[in-house]
Amino acid sequence: MRILAIDTSAVCASCAVLENGRIRAQSSTNAGLTHSRTLLPMVDAMLQNSETPLSSVDCFACSVGPGSFTGIRIGIAAIKGLCDGTDKPALAVSTLEGLAYNLLGQTCLACAVMDARCEQVYTALFRVEGERVTRLTDDDALKIADLGEKLKQYDEPIVFVGDGAEKCEQALGYPAAPPLLRFQSAASVALCAERNFDEDKLLAGKDLQPVYLRLPQAERELRAKNARN
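RESULT FIELD:
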C-alpha cells in the first residue's frame, strides 16, 4: 500500500509517501510562509523527485487536528482536492496520535502536547513499546498544571513530544523528546494511518472534517464580550 500523508497542524508543514511500511519520500518546510503557499508545490516536488506518480497513491492521510485552525483547514482542503482529482480515499489521523509515532522504537509513555496558548495544551497519552503504540487517553485541551496532576498516576518513564514539549518540560519536569523527534511529521502521520488501517475508516475526501477541541479564538473572544454586555 502506498500512502501520501500531510501535516499542516502547526508552523511546520510536511508531506511524506509511505510504501509498505517504508518511508519512500518526505519533505518539510519551517520557513514561516503560509501553508497555502508552500504545501502543494512541496508535495509536487516530492513526488517528482522520488518518481512517484500521483496515480500510484492508494490513499491519502491527513492530520485533522487538534492544532492551528487555519493550518488544519488548509491541509484538509488540499487532501480533499487530491482525493477528488484521483478518486482515491482518505484517512483522518489525530495530530496527537501522529506525534506519538515519532517515538517508535522506544519504551515510554508518549505525552503528546501542542501549545494551545493561555497556559493550555492539546494533549493525549500513549504507551510506546518498540513498534507498538497504544492510546491511553482521549485527545483533550488542558491547563498544563492539570496535565501534571493527571500524569502523577503513571509510574513509567514519560516523554513529552510536540511543539509544547519544552514548555511542559520546564513546568512539570518530565523530559522533552530530542528536537529531531519533537515536532509534527507527515511521515509519522503516514505510519499511524498504516498501522491503524481499517477499510471501514476510509473516507471520501469531501467527508474529512477538522477536530479543533475548542472554539476558534475569535469566537471565544466574541462570546466573552457578549457575556460582559
